[in-house]
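Give me the fold.
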Amino acid sequence: MTDTTLRPPGLARITALHAKYSIIETIRIPIALIGSLVFPALALLFFVVPNRVVADDPVMATQAVISLSVFAVMTNGLFSFGLTIAENREKPWDPYLRTLPASGLARVLAQICSTGALGLVAILPVIVVGALATAATASPVRLLAGFAALTLTALPFMLLGTVIGYTMPMKAAIAVVQIAMFGFAFGGGLFLPPVLFADWLDSLSMWFPSRHAREVVIWAVQGGDLPWWAAVGAIAWTLVLLVLALVVFRRDEGRRFR
């Protein structure tokens, strides 16, 4: 006897479907993707490659490539979550989607998967430019460890983008995301190495998630000692922003529909 009972799709299938169409939706507007792909690689090409003191030193060149890879992932997370959520909240389609049987967890996981995939794609041009035009180097094992560290340390930026998207309208979200992006990039040592910072700025930088991400990924790729404050800071930012993201998600649901 054939079982004709229709079973509801599981969480994994709904998450995969939602992630698939989220990526397709992004690819349909290529300029939105090109910005994330090109800008970090151009920063490496214009600011690091001409400086042969940095570019010809394997240690400094590798750290420069890592810093701009963190910048690429951070930018992708802040913009993808912050602006996409804020934009969707202003459309009638989004409240309709949230009334469907698919859980909110599936949508959040799908957004993380699709944004994470695009973030990993965004660092490929940085790695290619770094490999061809600088002395940056890493073994395959260390490179995989760096990808894993980069993935984990990207979570605070995705969660921060979620908080921004659920608390602000589109126009305000654009401004706040840009301020956060440049503030974390300069303050976290992604554009200038922290050794060039003044003492007060170096101390302040140790509280930034971008600095934590930079130090953790450098440790994963180059080895050495991992600063305790970088590991603790990355975990603390992730937990605090996760709680905050869940709070604003529930508050938004209560405001717009029940």
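DSSP finds 13 helices and no strands in the chain.
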